[in-house]
Amino acid sequence: MTTHPTTVDSEAPVVVRVETTVHAPLGTVWDLHTDIAAWADWNTDVDRVEYAGPLAPGTTFRWLTHGLDITSTVHQVVPGRRIVWGGPAHGIDGIHVWTFQETAPGIVTVRTEESWSGAPVEARRAEMEQALRQSLDAWLAALKTTAEAEAAAETEAVAHAEARAAAGRD
Fold this sequence. Notes:
Layout: E1 14-22, H1 26-34, H2 39-42, E2 46-50, E3 60-65, E4 68-78, E5 82-89, E6 92-104, E7 107-117, H3 119-123, H4 125-169
Antiparallel strand pairs: 1-7, 2-3, 3-4, 4-5, 5-6, 6-7
């Protein structure tokens, strides 16, 4: 039986935690983030993704980011709230946890934490920690920008439809 971690490795040489607030509905943020096959469409740090689903523990996906060819395994999915994946890549064993919390209607706090262990990390801990932090900050910024743009477009479309409907009733 395969064990699926649900938390980062707190004993790893590198653990980075970052968060952001996204002004978009939880469903928009969650759907964008968990459409793994579409990551390269909105996250400029992701060059390619091979993913066939389903979004469930044990599913693997292969992706290219920062020159690293990575095969990750989904470890946990709590729809609308949490996703965990990880795996080895180039001697680095990573565990990546994402949580999503609606703090008010249309406002979501997204938290991500990732642990890295392995010989390359132990050899260059400070450099690896900086690279991981920059990567996660960029990912959150791209997620925020894209989700907020999608939410604004949805709001505009609804307002336009309501205006057209109201004009037709006058």
